[in-house]
Specification:
2 copies of one chain form a homodimer. By secondary structure, chain A is an alpha/beta fold. Chain A contains 8 helices and 6 strands. In chain A, strands 4-3-5-6 form a 4-stranded parallel β-sheet. In chain A, strands 1-2 form a two-stranded antiparallel ribbon. In chain A, strand 1 and strand 2 form a beta hairpin. In chain A, helix 1 packs across helix 2. The longest helix of chain A is centred in the N-terminal third of the chain and has 17 residues. Chain A starts with a helix and ends in a 5-residue tail after the last helix. Chains A and B meet through helix 1, helix 2, helix 3, strand 2 and helix 5 of A and helix 1, helix 2, helix 3, strand 2 and helix 5 of B.
Amino acid sequence: MVDSIEKLIEEFSRFPGIGKKTAQRMAFFVLKQRDEESEALAQAILEVKSKVRYCSVCFNITEDDPCAICKDVKKDRSTICVVEEVNDVVALEKTNQYRGLYHVLGGVLSPLDGMGPEDLKVKELLSRLKDKQINEVILATNPSAEGEATAIYLSKLIKPLSVKVTRIARGLPAGGDLEYADQTTLANALEGRVEF
Amino acid sequence: MVDSIEKLIEEFSRFPGIGKKTAQRMAFFVLKQRDEESEALAQAILEVKSKVRYCSVCFNITEDDPCAICKDVKKDRSTICVVEEVNDVVALEKTNQYRGLYHVLGGVLSPLDGMGPEDLKVKELLSRLKDKQINEVILATNPSAEGEATAIYLSKLIKPLSVKVTRIARGLPAGGDLEYADQTTLANALEGRVEF
């Protein structure tokens, strides 16, 4: 096939969840786009890299440091929600439920992948907790083996600082079905039951 | 969210088959890539647009005109396979079954979308058939309503030129199952039955 198309297909195939077929469809789509459109795409890619940095407080992504959430005076500054990745902040903000601050770890503890505490923003989290305003840390790492281990690790570090530490609830997802829930989910749902 | 990330998510969402969630995952992937990697991607997008053109003979995509297939002396120059889109050429070449030339229509007849014969490379196909070397035209448009209509339309135009016109076989796909085949597929499979 044509070299430059091959190259573009290869580039698109690198993306997570994008297979060879989808990458091919995408490359042909670029070919069919108007010149201005594909230039806008190329430009958007380069701008993300040049403009976006990490917030020096919470390590969320931002164009200005500190980020919009850390600067927002309407946020509840007494609570920090600890998440693995930037996407998690996006997901939580969408709920409109949480009004506090965030802290993005940048991953989870995962000895097999060589990810230790020093690879995460743990030190930075602990130093934020010196601020006496903060009275609760919500651990919102994923309900995976690594996420749980990271939450336990952090809770052990934070408790001695006499800050309340909580973990997001694990249980059945909305619209879920007991019959089809896996054992761990069901066990968590039972264990985490609340009184009516 | 961050403006430049929003913009990139929007750009990726334009792609066919890429939803909001995938676009978001892709944008964050770009953010995590090394600078050289995302520059290579942006470059690949621009190069496709600047280098790739359509072959003046068969309207396949190419960097040099005429394309590699039209120039290939080992190809069987007596047969032209007519397809809807460039991707179809890629798919057929992969089979290693077909050794002839191609002609890319650039779409199908579709009155509802305002696609008439003048929007496809029909005139160009007919003028290629003036070459007395060509003795078979294989109509390989998709087995959809529009593809069938386009094949019928083309066959009516080509037959008077005393060139053999064939249509690719319709029937059960390899690995398919009679029980789960739709009516049209099954009807086609029966109608197209061949003697043992």
